[in-house]
Structure formats: structure tokens, C-alpha cells
Amino acid sequence: MLTVDQLTDAVAEYVRRLEAGTASDIAALYADNATLEDPAGSEVRTGRAAITAFYRELDGLDVTAELLTVRASGDTAAFHMRVVTTAGGFITSIEPIDVMTFGADGLITSMRAIWSPGDIVHRRSTPA
């Protein structure tokens, strides 16, 4: 079983790759048969190829990501983060709470992101 420090470090690396990595870099943190549900209640994506395709939407965007808090226990980490993207003259911000489970190898086995469309904030990046 992973330690709390290992879980916390894995979450921090995930957030770092959201900001500075490619879809493949992020998906490499997942086990081959992992699941991703973002947001919770939406289609569950299973397997690294489907997960890579999901994160491909971030490729080419200006992304900043900040880990706000993390709690970890057993094989699970829950964390609150802020993700801001800039594209097409708009800045979009969201602060989901994600819940991840991990295998003994430190790879993500499941991820559920808790947020709804009302949690997204859009604004122009330059004054109109």
C-alpha cells in the first residue's frame, strides 16, 4: 500500500502534468485499465487510449493548475484544485474536487471529478 506522502506526491505530479504536460504525459500516470469519469455521472472512459483522448482537449491550450488541498488515506486521494485555461480570447476557470484510487505501483486506477457546469467561470482575456 502507498503511503500518504506517496499519494500526495502522485496527486501533485498529476496537477503538474495538467499544467505542463501533453495528453500522453498525463495518461501515463494511469494504469492500463484505469477508469476516468469527468465529471462524475458522465461517460466512464476505460483504458489508457480513451483517457489519452480525453486529455487531448488540453493539448495546445494555455493551462495553469494549482493544487489547493489534498487528503489521502489507504489507496485513495481526494483533492481540490484550480484549473485555468486561456483560449480564443477567453479565460475559463474551474475548481473541481477529484477522487483518485491508486494501485500498489502508484498508477491511478480510477478518477472521478466532482463538478457541474455551474462551477465553470468564463471571462474575456482582454477587455471588450
From TrEMBL:
<keyword id="KW-0413">Isomerase</keyword>
<feature type="domain" description="SnoaL-like">
    <location>
        <begin position="11"/>
        <end position="110"/>
    </location>
</feature>
<dbReference type="GO" id="GO:0004769">
    <property type="term" value="F:steroid Delta-isomerase activity"/>
</dbReference>
<dbReference type="Pfam" id="PF12680">
    <property type="entry name" value="SnoaL_2"/>
</dbReference>
<dbReference type="InterPro" id="IPR037401">
    <property type="entry name" value="SnoaL-like"/>
</dbReference>
<dbReference type="InterPro" id="IPR032710">
    <property type="entry name" value="NTF2-like_dom_sf"/>
</dbReference>
<protein>
    <submittedName>
        <fullName>Steroid delta-isomerase</fullName>
        <ecNumber>5.3.3.1</ecNumber>
    </submittedName>
</protein>
